[in-house]
Amino acid sequence: MLTVSAPANAQNESEKIQVYLLGTFHFGKTSDTHSTPFPDLFSARRQKELEQIATSIVQAGVNKLFVERSYTLREEMDSLGKLYMEHGLLDSMEKSNEIYQVGFRAKQKNPAITIVPVDRKMELPSTELDEYEAMNPDSDFGGAFFKEPYKFSHKKKKLSESTLQEFLIDLNSELNRKLSQSDFLHYSLSYGDKSNFTGTRFTLSWYERNLIIFTNILRNIDPATDKKILILFGASHTAVLRQFFENHNRFQIIEIQNLFKENINYKVSPKK
Question: Name one Pfam family in it (predicted).
């Protein structure tokens, strides 16, 4: 019943929709555990870098951006975006958000760009992990495999010592993608044993949210007009979304350094 007929011949690469996965950190205040402070967001230096990023998006021919805002709030987002583009957005918290600093900045340069919110907020069931730990103080937590060290020696770039482009390229590297998923694909899965899959359910909820995001993206793509799209989400989300895009024959991922290729060698200027 679930079988879908597919073309006999492999799809030509040139026919595929090109996808830029711009995994980022949240520019404004966030409840994320591993947040990145961005105190100089409105400095001349950082605003220049953001102008370059927005220009790169426009020059790449991206016509649709999908962003980390609830899919039910498009009207509100569009209203705030209009204020931002008209220099009338005064709310510093909203104005700090990457949706406006990157997404609507690009739309300001090319009004033909469409920005679509596709997120669905879902709380991770972390209390289940706490309850399991409290009720099973003597658990071996998944067995010998999970007792092996699962460390990353990669030294992440510091935003204060990098251009924004350099920092984002590093944030979207393969190693950082694996690092961002280690809690879900290693530590969480150690909770439970035998027929107990407490940790698995925790990770499933993370994949469920991201699969809903992916579904919302697909629902808002027009294959006739959307040839190049950009996903502007937290980097931990794009690490998962990448798996879905890679395994869907209709898409071709373009590495983010190719988006910034004109500005990769942009030198860090003195702080202002």
Answer: DUF5694
Classified as helix, coil or strand, 35 is coil
* Residue 227, number of CB atoms within 10 A of its CB: 16
Domain boundaries, the chain: 17-27+38-259
Nearest to 67 by CA among 31, 103, 91: 103
Residue 71 CB contacts under 8 Å (≥ 6 apart), including other chains: 116, 117, 118, 119, 120, 216
Give the predicted TM-score (pTM) of the model.
0.89
Token output for 186? 């290693």
What is the CA angle 189-235-201, rounded to 5?
A: 25
Concatenate the DSSP letters of all residues of 84-151 into one string.
Answer: HHTT----HHHHHSHIIIIIIHHHHH-TT-EEEEEE------HHHHHHHHHH-TT--TT-GGGGS---
Residue type, 232: L
With a CB cutoff of 8 Å and minimum separation 6, the contacts of 94 are 28, 80, 100
Q: Among residues of the chain, what percentage have pLDDT more than 70?
A: 86
Query: Per residue in 116-148, pLDDT tens?
Result: 999 999 999 999 999 999 998 888 888 888 887
